[in-house]
Write a structure and sequence with these properties.
Radius of gyration: 22 Å
Number of strands: 0
Number of helices: 14
Oligomer: single chain
Strand content: under 5%
CATH topology of the largest domain: I/LWEQ domain
Distance between the termini: 30 Å
Helix content: over 70%
Shape: globular
Number of domains: 2
Largest sheet: none
Structural class: mainly alpha
CATH architecture of the largest domain: Up-down Bundle
Length: 407
């Protein structure tokens, strides 16, 4: 259902009033779908670079760099998504600021390789700052357009702008102080929404938000499907490892399909009916998303191990697949499944995460992982989500108030 366009103001701009959290038929806009395309590029490059780092045996450095780079990708995506659910006007200025953020993501993507190879974060940080300053402009516009969110929007704008200045200062620091400051700045970024929303929460549309998270999950799982295809391509060129490579391709496809099934099994929109639940859902998804992106790198590492192009042992190569799967399972169980599942499902899913984590100790780890996930799917089919009454999204009259937000 398409909402009627509000009357445009001077300069053909639409007043940026908070959108109705009960709006029927709300779904991702074509601008949001276009916005996601640049993240396909960024996620793909981050996954490829993690694959190279792991294959070459630079495990700790590779994981640290991937975690930092992926934070920039995830946080830029998430902030735009949550702003859009509250204030999307889709007028020409909103589109231009969104496209500016997209350009920043593409520049960030080009800086991922230097971050992995030379620990040079200059380009990712500068592009990240550009993206965040576009968000400052959006928040200032929201503050100017509607007095009910002015205080919250100003906290967002000032907080984001301050932290971006500190990011640029961080680039001038030596290695050790710079690393410590980098972690502190990440904490500061995460704290901004918590502080701002205590001034008066902005409305969110549960179905719209969870659809957006689902779409980003599909982007990440698509990278794993690419890994499955690459195994088949490699098998065509390396007939000596034909059977193992075809096996990896089939198992990677089964695992990816199973993770898709598990992710979309629970009613996600019921997990964000309170402020506390929303924070948990939004922030823990970093680990779910990062794990999904790392899984594709793990599949590529397995291919390299089978063809003799990896510095890792077979045991370590197996862990590059099973650890991301275990994190994905544990994360999605905690934020979306456990509150809507019966005791059996709430036992099976966490247990599956533990068993998958132990799989590399078995002679056929990836095969066993696929079997475990298929068994989880069987349980989910036989035990549908438990329906539970959900609190309605925060009412506009209460949500757009000044004062502490209540979960």
């Amino acid at each position: 259902m398409t909402r009627p366009p509000p009357p445009a103001s001077r300069f053909r701009l639409v007043p940026m009033a908070p959108r109705d959290s009960h709006e029927p038929g709300r779904s991702a806009s074509i601008l949001e779908l276009f916005f996601d395309l640049v993240f396909v590029v960024a996620v793909s490059i981050a996954s490829v670079q993690l694959h190279h780092a792991l294959t070459e045996g630079h495990v700790l450095d590779g994981l640290l760099t991937y975690s930092l780079v992926f934070f920039g990708i995830w946080w830029a995506w998430m902030n735009f998504t949550w702003f859009a659910t509250s204030f999307d006007t889709d007028d020409w200025l909103y589109r231009l600021l969104t496209i500016a953020q997209m350009a920043g993501v593409l520049v960030l993507a080009t800086g991922i390789e230097p971050a992995f190879t030379d620990a040079d974060y200059t380009l990712p940080v500068v592009s990240y700052v550009v993206m965040r300053l576009a968000m400052v402009a959006q928040w200032l516009r929201a503050a100017r357009s509607h007095p009910s969110v002015r205080r919250t929007a100003h906290v967002y704008a000032v907080g984001i702008a301050t932290v971006q200045a500190l990011w640029l200062v961080q680039l001038t620091l030596p290695d050790v102080p710079g690393t410590i400051t980098l972690v502190l700045l990440i904490v500061a970024e995460i704290a901004i929404p918590i502080i701002a929303q205590r001034q008066g929460t902005t409305p969110w549309h549960p179905h719209h938000i969870t659809e957006r998270y689902g779409l980003f999950t599909l982007i990440l799982l698509g990278e794993s499907l690419l890994g499955s295809a690459n195994a088949i391509i490699e098998a065509v060129h390396d007939t000596d490892a034909l059977a193992p490579l075809i096996s990896i391709a089939a198992l990677a496809f089964i695992v990816t399909a199973a993770l898709w099934w598990i992710y979309f099994w629970p009613p996600h929109h019921l997990s964000i009916t309170s402020f506390g639940g929303t924070l948990r859902y939004g922030y823990v998804h970093y680990f779910v998303f990062a794990a999904a992106g790392a899984l594709s790198a793990g599949i590529e590492v397995q291919i390299d191990a089978l063809t003799g192009h990896s510095e890792l042992s077979d045991l370590a190569a197996s862990y590059t697949v099973t650890i991301p799967i275990a994190i994905f399972l544990a994360g999605i169980w905690w934020v979306a499944i456990r509150d809507h599942a019966d005791p059996l499902v709430n036992t099976v899913v966490p247990l599956a995460a533990v068993l998958v984590l132990c799989d590399p100790l078995i002679p056929v780890p990836v095969t066993l992982t696929a079997v475990i996930l298929v068994l989880v799917i069987v349980v989910l089919v036989l035990h549908p989500p438990v329906s539970s009454p959900a609190a309605p999204p925060p009412d506009a009259a209460r949500t757009w108030r000044r004062g502490p937000a209540r979960s």
